[in-house]
Specification:
Layout (H helix, E strand, L loop, with lengths): L2 H29 L3 H10 L3 H17 L6 H23 L4 H16 L4 H11 L1
């Protein structure tokens, strides 16, 4: 393995660990019914079911990011969640939205680093049939 490949692998795992920790924490906050989360989702107006749905997605994909076979798909789902958070911050919550952009950039970097695994999951599913 070359130095570039080693550095890329290290960067990939550091980003995976960062995003997993962030989204596992965020998902746990939502699923345990923290008052701040309840208030935010009340303000958004989609109901508490959406808080639970978002928390479950964050928890499941937070784990999935650490599993190389599912990491790309989980990262893509988390990017969609992050875009939703950005929209909610800008349109309804009117709070700090910069963090959603930073998280989106990190998720984008993670997707870029995993771009080579894009077709592998699909081909392994087809082979299993």
């Amino acid at each position: 393995m070359s130095r570039t490949e080693t550095a890329s692998t290290i960067a990939l795992w550091v980003l995976r660990a960062m995003m997993a920790g962030l989204f596992l924490f965020a998902g746990a906050m939502k699923l345990t019914g923290q008052p701040m989360m309840i208030a935010e989702f009340n303000q958004i107006g989609l109901g508490q079911w959406f808080r639970l749905f978002t928390g479950a997605l964050e928890l499941i994909c937070g784990v999935g990011v650490l599993m190389p076979r599912f990491s790309l798909f989980a990262t893509l789902v988390l990017l969609v969640v992050d875009v939703g958070a950005f929209v909610a911050q800008v349109t309804t919550l009117h709070r700090d939205w910069i963090h959603t952009i930073v998280i989106g950039l990190i998720l984008g970097a993670l997707i870029y680093l995993q771009r080579g695994s894009f077709g592998r999951f699909d081909s392994s599913v087809q082979q299993a049939r």
